[in-house]
Design brief:
By secondary structure, the chain is α/β, with parallel strands linked by helices. 39% of the residues lie in helices and 21% in strands. The chain has 24 helices and 30 strands. The chain starts with a helix and ends in an 8-residue tail after the last helix.
């Protein structure tokens, strides 16, 4: 049966292609719908008005008349649709009206006839479609609104194909999901039938890569089923460009030698200060890299006390990484030598490639690298840091604070912002990697490596695009169950909508697809650079929560309200405090305080009140996370609060009770030191803000859900 439907559609698409067309007519669309079990109403193609009258008479009730023309893509805009036609006279009038409108719209349009379609009953109008996204390939879409979907823009996307469960999840992923379940006395729609429309469309586009877009719009969803009133199919004009791919073990093998090298050659090493080759050499030497460092320069015998070689082929023994610090025009010939030497990794610092329009030069470099089996990082990058190897292969400032965070950036400027943030906050990193033009190595290669790296507990990535979205999703899905992945996606434009030929295509702007697919992969998307860096800093500090119950304990009512708002904004669940726990909290707070959630201990309370309530929050197993709101007073100074909080949290961790604790400190400048003290001791604390600590806790929860540690999906 599966082969039969594939043969049917293949024959049809080949026929359309042979005629030089890229869009299917409505009758051709029905052939595809029937082959794949996509539910559509009964319909016939009338070649003349008498046939239209005869076909309409066979339908039970009113009909819809639609123009059938390979030259008319948007039938409604051309006046080519008349709805609710009854009886012979109305059919004749509608037939002639449509032909007249289309002739006025496009005098040269070929008219194959009029489609007579059974009028569907009233129901909820939705759209089901699929597009070919330049990053993620075939993507299936579902949204509310039918013909108004571009106005409402309530739509969600998934990688195609999807199974039944994933299709059902799409129904719950739109903002107006409750409408499908029935509101104000209206019955719910047939969710299974609607999910089947999504699933079958996703199978269709997965089976036929040449289908660029599919639009079922509107789909009328009722309690009895879901029928597509119209199906539009567009074919691609150009075949997708194939990218060379590498298996997981191939990636890990080359990445191991890149991130844990025993020998590094610097192509273009220099004794002259201010030269990139000099800075790279100094960073490698001063950073304490324990492996061999081989400077390569055609006219030098000694560079910074190290024997220099005229060519990398002259270097004795194996070389794991060749760092290029030479002008772009010399890279290709030097890379040939690197390939002949059998060096597995080339780090291309120079600019002057595709980013400046020199695509041919970059393509030449990629061809040479692939021919010799060399993986390329860059070009147009600041280099990279692998701190646990004391490796600083960059011309920028050194950084050697070892820790659990791996950071990557596509932009050199963002890379330096990452470095400055890490230094100012004392964030320990396992690696900082520049990706630049991503001629070869990209985020999915790094994700694959960092997912296995024992020194890395959290991965944060700034990216402007993905070369292969599906490879990234695959790598993310393998990594997220083990450690969080945070992504800052720059560029929230809808550039992909400009040339769209369907409603689905118009909705599939870059950011809309990225947002849903990244969430589907379990990735935490950061709204901005500071958030990405703060999440990366905080997530390894916070223990994984064991449940959803969050309790706020605050010394200021105003902070409690803002912390509650932040909890809601970040998808956190404030615990409904049971009577016995309420009474337990009340035993520690003054009569004019407030239990419940937030627990307001009021501002004039001594350190013991903070300590007792925090202890209770950590002791009770029904509470899974604590949000603390501190207010600076002379009764409980900032460092007193910080020391008691850190002491209590450490005590419970020694007892095996680990819960995420975040804190918001409001007060004079002393709260800054208190926050630093807390952060260093496992409490994520920020001064002057109620939003940041709760956002960090929300990010931890999003990862825990995506990793399957709390139940439910991402």
């Amino acid at each position: 049966m599966t082969q039969d439907r594939v043969r049917t559609v293949r024959a049809l698409l080949d026929s359309v292609r042979a005629k030089g067309r890229t869009s299917l007519t409505a009758p051709e669309g029905k052939v595809i719908a029937d082959a794949y079990g996509i539910a559509v109403p009964g319909e016939e193609l009338a070649r003349d008005v008498d046939q239209a009258v005869a076909y309409a008479a066979r339908c039970d009730g009113p009909v819809v008349l639609k123009i059938v023309s390979p030259d008319i893509l948007h039938k409604t805009e051309a006046g080519g649709v008349v709805v609710g036609v009854r009886g012979a006279s109305e059919v004749r009038a509608a037939f002639y009206e449509i032909v007249k409108n289309v002739r006025a719209y496009d005098a040269d349009a070929r008219i194959e006839g009029i489609q007579v379609q059974q009028l569907l009953p009233r129901g909820t109008e939705v759209i089901v479609g699929a597009v070919t996204d330049p990053t993620f390939g075939k993507v299936v879409a579902f949204g509310l609104g039918g013909v108004l979907v571009e106005v409402l823009k309530d739509v969600t996307f998934r990688l195609a194909p999807v199974d039944g469960d994933e299709a059902l999840s799409m129904l719950d992923s739109i903002r107006a999901a409750e409408i499908l379940r029935g509101v104000r006395g209206a019955p719910p729609v047939d969710r299974w039938a609607l999910a089947e429309q999504i699933r079958r469309v996703s199978e269709l586009v997965a089976d036929f890569p040449e289908i660029a877009e599919v639009d079922l719009n509107p789909v009328i969803a009722t309690p009895q089923g879901a029928f597509a009133a119209d199906i539009r199919v567009l074919l691609a004009t150009d075949p997708p460009r194939q990218r060379r791919t590498y298996g997981r073990e191939e990636i890990l093998t080359s990445m191991r030698r890149l991130m844990r090298p025993r020998s590094v050659a610097v192509i273009g090493a220099s004794n002259e200060q201010g030269k990139i080759g000099n800075s790279v050499m100094r960073n490698l030497i001063d950073g304490g890299f324990p492996g061999k460092i081989h400077p390569v320069h055609p006219r030098a015998d000694d560079i910074l006390g190290r024997k220099a070689y005229k060519s990398v082929t002259d270097v004795p023994g194996e070389v794991d990484v060749a760092v290029f610090a030479i002008p772009a025009k010399f890279v290709a010939s030097a890379l040939e030598e690197v390939g002949k030497k059998g060096v597995p990794n080339a780090v291309l610092i120079p600019s002057g490639f595709a980013e400046t329009g020199e695509h041919a030069l970059q393509d030449e470099v990629v061809e040479i690298a692939e021919r010799h089996g060399v993986r390329v990082l860059g070009p147009n990058i600041y280099g990279y840091y692998s701190t646990w190897q004391d490796l600083c292969a960059t011309f920028c400032t050194p950084y050697d604070v070892k820790g659990p965070v791996a950071l990557t950036s596509q932009s050199g400027g963002i890379g330096m912002a990452i470095l400055g943030f890490a230094r100012s906050t004392g964030t320990g990193v396992s690696a900082i990697v520049g990706l630049g033009n991503k001629a070869d190595l990209d985020e999915d290669d790094l994700l694959t490596w960092f997912g296995e790296d024992p020194h890395t507990e959290c991965i944060a990535m700034h990216l402007e695009d993905l070369k292969d979205g599906r490879a990234f999703v695959e790598a993310a899905r393998a990594t997220v169950p083990k450690k969080p992945v945070v992504v800052l996606k720059a560029g929230r434009t809808a550039a992909g909508a400009r040339a769209a030929g369907s409603h689905t295509g118009a909705l599939a702007g870059d950011d809309a697809v990225y947002d849903d697919i990244l969430r589907q992969a379990g990735v935490i998307r950061a709204p901005g650079l500071n958030e990405m860096l703060e999440y990366a800093r905080a997530l390894p500090v916070l223990p994984t929560p064991k449940g959803d119950n969050v309790v706020i304990i605050t010394g200021a009512g105003g902070s409690g309200v803002l912390l509650s708002d932040a909890a809601y904004d970040n998808g956190l669940s404030l615990m409904e405090i049971p009577d016995d726990l309420d009474a337990a909290f009340r035993a520690f707070i003054p009569p004019f305080g407030a239990a419940g959630n937030p627990v307001d201990i009021t501002g004039g309370e001594p350190p013991s009140t903070y300590e007792n309530t925090i202890r209770l929050g950590l002791e009770d197993p029904r509470i899974h996370s604590l949000v603390l709101g501190y207010w600076h007073t002379v009764v409980t100074p900032p460092m007193v609060f910080a020391e008691l909080t850190a002491r209590v949290v450490a005590e419970f961790r020694e007892r095996g009770i680990e819960k995420p604790v975040v804190a918001s400190l409001a007060g004079d400048v002393e709260v800054e030191e208190a926050c630093r003290y807390l952060f260093a001791r496992g409490v994520v604390a920020y001064p002057y803000t109620t939003e940041k600590p709760v956002a960090a806790l929300g990010a931890k929860y999003r990862w825990a859900r995506a990793a399957g540690l709390l139940g439910g999906g991402p």
